[in-house]
Amino acid sequence: MIEYLSEIKEKALLEIKAAEDLQALDVIRVQYLSKKGEVSLMMGKLKDLPQDQRPSFGQKVNETKIAVEKALFEKKTDLENIELLKVLESEKIDVTLPGYQFYQGSIHPLNQVIEDVEDLFVGLGYEVAEGPELENDYYNFEMMNLAKDHPARAMQDSFYVDENTLLRTHTSPVQARTMLEKKGEPLRIICPGKVYRRDDDDPTHSHQFMQIEGLVIDKHVNFANLKDALLKMVKHLFGHERIIRLRPSYFPFTEPSVEVDVSYVKKDGSIGYIEVLGAGQVHPNVLKMGGYDPEIFQGFAFGIGVERIAILKYNIDDIRHFYMNDLRFLGQFKGVGK
């Protein structure tokens, strides 16, 4: 029986050595090492042997099993390495070929302007406030001192959804909502966002554009504080050599109101001015509707068009470029302002 066990071992090792793939190797494993395999069945022969021969025979069976298992493991490792080499050979990459070109996007020039202005005013202690673009007439007009029949409403042709709902014509309703939320507490905010008016699209007008409005309400706020904030913004956006000029104007929600011009150097070297925004001290009626006592609190507000800033900063000749999704145009602004 010892000789027969040696024959089984020799036969198994030869078959393992000759196996050409993992499937054939698994068949050999089942043939010899499964519960009904030849090596496993030899353990059942122990009961047929005399008591004194059983320990040595059991040891031989275990040695045979270990030898077959080791041969199977080594052969399996060799076959797996061969398969891996075949895969690597078939999937070999030519590192001399040019690589894929990955296009990196950039921040839209209008968003760059908004982030730039936000950085300035957040550093000055302002909060960034937002509100809905589909707005109630009450917040958009009435709380801005524009009653239902106010003639100044004609200055802002609007997209109405129903009698009391419209696409906001400015970001001022964000100011109105914030005043009510503050419940008479001082505030200092800027309100960037998209606004809509029924304008015909041309190089200088769009039915959709973006604004940044600012609002400060506190005790002892005066016109000098407004001028200081405007000058800081203009110098930050256009350069420290710029100065501003204030011209009297009219806005229903501020009194007094001004148009703000920024200086530039003409070709002949003289100084010229171009209008960039409107501003003024908050009208007492607006303060009252917002929950503030105009005898105690004063405020100032300003509003500037984001497209107007971008056009002046980057010498853009047509406002429609910002909304055409032309990569040739947008690709010029990678890293601008950073």
Topology summary:
Elements: H1 2-18, H2 22-33, H3 38-42, H4 54-90, H5 109-123, E1 127-128, E2 134-136, H6 137-140, E3 159-162, E4 165-167, H7 172-182, E5 187-196, E6 208-218, H8 223-238, E7 244-251, E8 254-265, E9 271-282, H9 284-289, E10 298-305, H10 306-314, H11 327-330
Parallel strand pairs: 1-5
Antiparallel strand pairs: 2-4, 3-4, 5-6, 6-10, 7-8, 8-9, 9-10
Strand content: 15-25%
Assign the CATH topology of the largest domain. BirA Bifunctional Protein, domain 2
Radius of gyration from CA coordinates: 41 Å
Total DSSP E strands: 10
| H-E string | HHHHHEEHEEHEEHEEEHEHH
How far apart are the first and last residues' alpha carbons, in Å? Answer: 87 Å
Number of helices: 11
Strand order of the largest sheet: 1-5-6-10-9-8-7
> Which stretches are low in confidence, meaning pLDDT under 50 for 5 or more residues running?
none
Give an overview of the whole structure.
The protein contains eleven helices and ten strands. By secondary structure, it is an alpha+beta fold. It folds into two domains: 2-90; 109-333, 2-Layer Sandwich (BirA Bifunctional Protein, domain 2). Strands 1-5-6-10-9-8-7 form a seven-stranded mixed sheet, with helices on both faces. Helix 2 (22-33) packs antiparallel against helix 4. The protein starts with a helix and ends in an 8-residue tail after the last helix.
